[in-house]
Structure formats: structure tokens, C-alpha cells
Automatic annotation (TrEMBL):
<dbReference type="GO" id="GO:0052915">
    <property type="term" value="F:23S rRNA (guanine(2445)-N(2))-methyltransferase activity"/>
</dbReference>
<dbReference type="Pfam" id="PF22020">
    <property type="entry name" value="RlmL_1st"/>
</dbReference>
<keyword id="KW-0949">S-adenosyl-L-methionine</keyword>
<keyword id="KW-0698">rRNA processing</keyword>
<keyword id="KW-0489">Methyltransferase</keyword>
<dbReference type="GO" id="GO:0005737">
    <property type="term" value="C:cytoplasm"/>
</dbReference>
<dbReference type="InterPro" id="IPR004114">
    <property type="entry name" value="THUMP_dom"/>
</dbReference>
<dbReference type="GO" id="GO:0003723">
    <property type="term" value="F:RNA binding"/>
</dbReference>
<protein>
    <recommendedName>
        <fullName>Ribosomal RNA large subunit methyltransferase K/L</fullName>
        <ecNumber>2.1.1.173</ecNumber>
        <ecNumber>2.1.1.264</ecNumber>
    </recommendedName>
</protein>
<dbReference type="Pfam" id="PF10672">
    <property type="entry name" value="Methyltrans_SAM"/>
</dbReference>
<dbReference type="InterPro" id="IPR054170">
    <property type="entry name" value="RlmL_1st"/>
</dbReference>
<keyword id="KW-0694">RNA-binding</keyword>
<dbReference type="Pfam" id="PF01170">
    <property type="entry name" value="UPF0020"/>
</dbReference>
<dbReference type="InterPro" id="IPR029063">
    <property type="entry name" value="SAM-dependent_MTases_sf"/>
</dbReference>
<dbReference type="InterPro" id="IPR017244">
    <property type="entry name" value="23SrRNA_methyltr_KL"/>
</dbReference>
<comment type="similarity">
    <text>Belongs to the methyltransferase superfamily. RlmKL family.</text>
</comment>
<keyword id="KW-0963">Cytoplasm</keyword>
Length: 699
């Protein structure tokens, strides 16, 4: 007899305790977070290795004692007769879990234990065993809880959740033991003759675990290498006897198990995994959308699934409407069924508009998840809510109605239709051709993160219906206060661009890869002013970004346009915009730090446009840049490039910015604020989106 410790994921403790009592009715267990302990025999430990569907590890304790310093740990490990546990030609590793005041780092604790083990062999005249942290023959475990320390052998070797049938999996794999727990919590394991359906099966883990349970297949039956394989206390006869009994315990499957997914590639992977597990013939696989799936007959059963979580923000734009539709579909088509869903996004499950019977906290790997049970009966069959009555939906429709007369006077397919009009829905919604970009402003720290996420999901839920669009036309981004070039840095890698139209020009925009799209919509009127003023003039565009102002100047009849930016990527984008508009002529594209370039540039221009970042600390600049601190020297240097009758337009979007009027006057320059003329109708609500001045020489 020895103390045996059986570990599992957080949230599965009580379920594991029930399983142990079902497998070993005579043991008395003690529960601690993530672990069940009891005194038992080697055969008891083997039984759990073979049969537990919920355990991660089965640990056989060799010693226990108090550890108040490093020497206590060393001595506790040194007192074990390791030559009775494994041979010197066996490779071993130490898994150290826990810390206390004396042992504050697990790596230090593992090293101290390893030293004691190696010294034991050396002191007894044997050769030193080798360390192997990747494929050890023997895994020594150490569990430290305050001053109490336990040392022993990990009989399971690799985690028991690895059933060795899953060679292919999706992006967010469901752990096998968590899938088994879902089936137990759902109630299906008590009604195994009823149908089981997983409509979002991914790599098929839930359906495969269900088939193994339905046929009473021991989950450890196909494992070949165990933590006890090289253990000298291993009883091969006892193990073989238990394994033979498990082989004879298999039964026939008495239920229908169906697994489907909208991704054909995942269905193929699921089939391969089921074949590896030996249960392919027991599962009906199909490539179908969950919204199209209906019961095969009138008999009720269980839906158990691990739907997409929406861990990546960009996924929510598609998932929120999908879950809403799925909730309605479940109510209409699956009456009388039980539903169990696992998700790390509990708020996403709320869009199903179903009342939960029970919910359980569980860890799937490092993700904190909720397993939620529903019964599709009574009130849960009612269609709840009217999208048209939602405040965000109402405001969106009012805005569109208000903008319609203005839009009839405009020649643009890019404009803003909502800008945090309702404080609780803190997003901006911009249209770019057929697409709509939703930018979530980062909520202040005073707003609960879950509440902010829930409100964002409301936006994504009601937006498609209010605009009459499909969800694939929605692009979601988070807009935080950016400094310098941060607003232009990549957030994705699609390299996808579309062409949009504005006032006779065509612009390439990328709605997916950057926080900004390549076209500042609040500068629409500014670009029109540039277009009108540029005729027969030489134009200089500094901090040009993707060259939209340069395009308008060229289309307005500029004699030449010089476009300057530090980024080669954006200069290339500007060139692409010129090609998109079939613009040719004496136009220059210069990659340079505008601040340094201006100091030595001798050219003269009739029109100069300057729209610098608020802040920059780019490595390609000689110093940091702050628009409030440094704008005067920039404008003086830029104005030096003006001819006698030239005009400099200066714009920036730093909140609270104050133009150094006196400094400009001393430099012989006159600034006239034209901000009001440059704010488009769709940005009037946020009139401080930017400020703009026209600057000329004093005569």
C-alpha cells in the first residue's frame, strides 16, 4: 500500500473523485485543488492508469516530509532507495510542482532533488544516471505545499489525457479528458442509448470520447509506453491481467453518434482520428453547417459541443451573429433536446438567448472555460427580443437616415455612420465600399472588461440587420490611443486591398492588416481643398502616408507633386494609388525622414501639406518627435520651401494641441485656422478629430 495522488484539470476535482469511487469502491479519498489522494495498492494505481477518463497523472508516493529549507528537500530525496526504483542506465527527469518560503523556484527545487538522486547512486558505487527532460524512462514527481513535500514516481508518464488517437487537430484543441468530462456533466453518460450530436466537431474529440464510453473501451488501452515501464517495482503480471480484463470488457454501441462541421478539412481530420481510435464505424460524420443541421428523427437526445470561442477579436464579427442565429435554430428545430456547450467566452453563449440549467467552471489547457447546460423545453423554445428595439440598432438607423440627404450631394463611398454616439457602445463604424469597419475604442479602466466585451458583442449582433449586410462584410479592430508610427503598424497579414471611390479618385485601402486603413476619412474635405488649390502649382506632401493628398493634388492639375515619407511600404502604396488613377507626369516619391530632409531641401512650392504624427520615436529618425514641442521648427522649415505666394496647410490630430502663433509671427508667417471648413458632415459630432491651419508668408 502507498499514498496515490491523481491529478486533473481545475474544475474536474469532484467529477474525478466520483470516477475513482466508481472504479475503486473501497478507497477513502481526500480532495485538494486539482488532485485526489488516497491510500491504495499498485493494482489500484494501474486501474486508474487504464480506466480513468478524467485524470492527467497517477502518482505513486515514495516519501513525505516537512521541508523548511533546501537541505530538508535534499535529505528527504536522499533517504529514498533510488536503486530500488530504477537502473542507472535509465534516463530520468524531475517534475517539481509548488514553492514555499525556502524553495521559491521550481527549477531550483528540481535541481536539488536531482542532485540527491544522482548522489545516491554515486555513493553506492554505481554510475550516474542520465537526465532526459523530453523522453525520460522514469519521471520523478515532487509536490510541495507549504512545508509539506511529497516525492514519488509518475506512473502515467505522459499526461493521461493523451489517448494517442489524435494526430490532427484544429487551432484550439479540446483536451480529451475535458471532452469526457463534458459528456459526464451533460447527463449523456447516464442515458447512453440516446443520440449524441456534436454540430461543431472540430477534430472529433467529443464524438470519439463518446464512442469509447458507449463501447466501454478503457482510455489507456492503446497506450504502449507508461511511466512504470522502466520502474523496478512494476508488476507486469498484474498489469497484463488488468489489461486483458479491459479487452474483454468492450460492449456494443447502442446509440447514434453524429459529428459534423462546416469546415470540410476538420471533418477529414476527425475521421482520421476516429479511425486511429478504432471507432470510425460508430460515428456518422458529415460536412454541414450547424444552422442547417436538424434531428434525423423525432427522438430527443444530447447536443454536446465545443464551439468557436472567439479568442481573437477579429472572429467575433462572424461569431456573434452566428450564435444568435444558432440559438433561434435550436429553439425551432431541436425541441426536447439537452445542450451542453463549452466556451471561454460566456458572454458569447448569452447571445443564444437560452436560460441555463447548470454551468461549471473548467480549465481547457490554459483557457478558463464554462461548461453550460441547457434544456430545450418550455421558455427556452421562445424567440426572445426584437433587434429593432435595441438602442444601438435604433441610433444606427437614425444616423443613416440623417446622413442620406448629405450623401446624395457627395461623390464618395467611404464615410462614418456612427462614432460612439451612445457612450455605452464605444465604437466607430465606417463604410468603405461594400465593407464596414468597426473600431472599438479601448474602454477606460473604470469600465469592467467583461461588460465592455458584452457591449461590443451587442454591436456586432445588431449591425448586420441594421445595415442589411452579411457578417463577412464586417471588419473589427480595437482602437487604442496610438503614438507616432504605432497607428500604422501591422496587426494582421492578409495583404488584401480593395479599391474605393472618393470625389473622382480611386484609392487602395487595406481594412484588415493595419489599425488605419490607408485613407483618413476625416480629411475628405481637406483633400478637396488641396485639389482646388493645386492647379498649376508645384505641390509638396510631407508625412504623406499612402499619398491620398498627392493623388488629389495631381487630379486637381498640379504641375508636379513631391511625396515624402519615411516608410518605403507607404511610398509604394502611394505609387500604387497613382497608377490606380492613371496619373503620370513629373511626380517624385522620396523615402526620407521629413524633418532631416527639409533642413537641406532647396526646392520651392506653391502648396505644401503637412500632416505629421503626434509622436514618434522611430529608429530611422535622428531624435524623437512631439508635435506640440517640435511643430514650430517643422513649420518654419516647411515654409522655407514656399514660393512668394505659396500656402502651407498644416493639420494634426493631437488632443489639446495649441499652435505657436507668436512663434510663427516672429518667423514672418501668418496662420489662419480653417478647421471648421475641413471637418466633414459625418465627423461633425466629433469636431475635434483634427485641427487645420492655412499658413502664408506675411507681406
Amino acid at each position: 500500500m502507498s499514498m496515490i495522488h491523481v491529478t486533473t484539470s481545475k474544475g474536474l476535482d469532484t467529477l474525478l473523485d466520483d470516477e475513482i469511487h466508481a472504479l475503486l469502491p473501497d478507497v477513502t479519498t481526500k480532495m485538494s485543488p486539482g488532485c485526489i489522494s488516497f491510500e491504495g495498492t499498485l493494482e489500484d494505481a494501474y486501474t486508474l492508469c487504464l480506466w480513468s477518463r478524467l485524470a492527467n497523472r497517477v502518482l505513486w508516493q515514495l516519501a513525505e516530509g516537512k521541508v523548511n529549507d533546501a537541505e530538508d528537500l535534499y535529505q528527504l530525496a536522499a533517504d529514498i532507495d533510488w536503486s530500488m526504483q530504477f537502473k542507472t542506465d535509465s534516463r530520468f527527469m524531475v517534475q517539481f510542482n509548488g514553492t514555499n518560503r525556502a524553495i521559491q523556484h521550481t527549477q531550483f527545487g528540481a535541481q536539488k532533488t536531482k542532485d540527491a538522486i544522482v548522489d545516491h547512486f554515486s555513493e553506492n558505487g554505481a554510475s550516474r544516471p542520465s537526465i532526459d527532460t523530453k523522453q525520460p524512462d522514469i519521471s520523478v514527481f515532487v509536490r510541495l505545499r507549504r512545508e509539506q513535500c511529497q516525492i514519488g514516481i509518475d506512473l502515467s508518464g505522459r499526461s493521461l489525457h493523451q489517448r494517442h488517437y489524435r494526430e490532427a487537430q484544429g487551432d484550439a484543441p479540446l483536451k480529451e479528458h475535458v471532452a469526457a468530462a463534458m459528456l459526464m456533466r451533460s447527463g449523456w453518460t447516464e442515458n447512453k442509448t440516446l443520440p449524441l450530436v456534436d454540430p461543431m466537431c472540430g477534430s472529433g474529440t467529443i464524438a470519439i470520447e463518446a464512442a469509447l464510453i458507449a463501447t466501454n473501451v478503457a482510455p489507456g488501452l492503446n497506450r504502449e509506453v507508461w511511466g512504470f515501464s522502466y520502474w523496478l517495482q512494476h508488476n507486469a503480471n498484474s498489469w497484463l491481467r488488468l489489461r486483458e480484463a479491459a479487452l474483454n470488457a468492450k460492449t456494443e454501441c447502442e446509440c447514434k453518434i453524429l459529428a459534423s462541421d462546416s469546415d470540410k478539412r476538420l471533418v477529414i481530420k476527425a475521421k482520421k482520428n476516429a479511425d486511429n481510435a478504432g471507432v470510425f464505424s460508430l460515428i456518422q460524420f458529415s460536412h454541414r453547417d450547424a444552422l442547417q443541421l436538424t434531428p434525423a428523427d423525432t427522438e430527443s437526445g444530447f447536443i454536446v459541443s465545443n464551439p468557436p470561442y472567439g479568442e481573437r477579436l477579429s472572429e467575433l464579427a462572424q461569431l456573434v451573429p452566428l450564435f444568435t442565429q444558432w440559438g433561434k435554430h435550436l429553439k425551432q428545430e431541436w425541441s426536447g433536446w439537452h445542450v451542453s456547450l463549452l466556451s471561454s467566452n460566456r458572454d458569447l453563449l448569452r447571445t443564444l438567448k437560452l436560460r441555463a440549467d447548470k454551468e461549471y467552471a473548467v480549465m481547457n489547457g490554459k483557457l478558463e472555460c464554462k461548461l453550460v447546460n441547457y434544456a430545450l423545453v418550455g421558455d427556452n423554445l421562445e424567440i426572445i427580443g426584437n433587434d429593432a428595439e435595441h438602442p444601438f440598432s435604433n441610433r444606427l438607423k437614425k444616423n443613416i437616415k440623417r446622413l442620406k440627404p448629405w450623401l446624395k450631394t457627395q461623390d464618395t463611398e467611404c464615410y462614418r455612420i456612427y462614432d460612439a454616439d451612445l457612450p455605452e457602445y464605444n465604437v466607430a463604424v465606417d463604410r468603405y465600399g461594400d465593407y464596414y469597419v468597426v473600431q472599438e475604442y479601448a474602454p477606460p479602466k473604470t469600465i469592467d472588461e467583461q461588460k465592455a466585451r458584452r457591449r461590443l458583442q451587442d454591436v456586432l449582433l445588431y449591425l448586420p440587420a441594421a445595415l442589411g449586410i452579411n457578417t463577412d462584410k464586417i471588419v473589427l479592430k480595437v482602437r487604442e490611443q496610438q503614438k507616432g508610427k504605432a497607428q500604422y503598424e501591422k496587426v494582421s497579414q492578409t495583404e488584401k486591398r480593395i479599391t474605393v471611390r472618393e470625389n473622382g479618385a480611386r484609392f487602395l485601402v487595406n481594412l484588415w492588416d493595419y489599425l488605419d486603413t490607408g485613407l483618413f476619412l476625416d480629411h475628405r474635405e481637406t483633400r478637396q481643398i488641396i485639389k482646388k488649390e493645386a492647379k498649376n502649382k508645384d505641390v509638396l506632401n510631407l508625412f504623406s502616408y499612402t499619398g491620398s493628398v498627392s493623388v488629389m493634388a495631381a487630379l486637381g492639375g498640379a504641375r508636379s507633386v513631391t511625396t515624402v515619407d519615411m516608410s518605403n511600404t507607404y511610398l509604394q502604396w502611394a505609387k500604387d494609388n497613382f497608377r490606380e488613377n492613371h496619373i503620370t507626369g513629373p511626380h517624385a516619391f522620396i523615402q526620407a525622414d521629413c524633418l532631416s530632409w527639409l533642413k537641406s531641401h532647396k526646392g520651392k512650392y506653391g502648396l505644401v501639406f503637412v500632416d505629421p504624427p503626434s509622436f514618434s520615436n522611430s529608429k530611422r529618425m535622428q531624435t524623437t518627435w512631439d508635435v506640440q514641442r517640435d511643430h514650430l521648427s517643422l513649420l518654419v522649415n516647411a515654409a522655407a520651401c514656399l514660393n512668394e505666394e505659396g500656402t502651407l496647410m498644416f493639420s494634426n490630430n493631437k488632443r489639446g494641441f495649441k499652435l505657436d502663433v507668436n512663434g510663427l509671427q516672429q518667423a514672418g508667417l501668418i496662420a489662419t485656422e480653417i478647421t471648421e471648413q475641413t471637418i466633414p458632415e459625418d465627423y461633425k459630432r466629433r469636431g475635434n478629430i483634427h485641427k487645420c491651419w492655412s499658413i502664408t508668408r506675411a507681406h
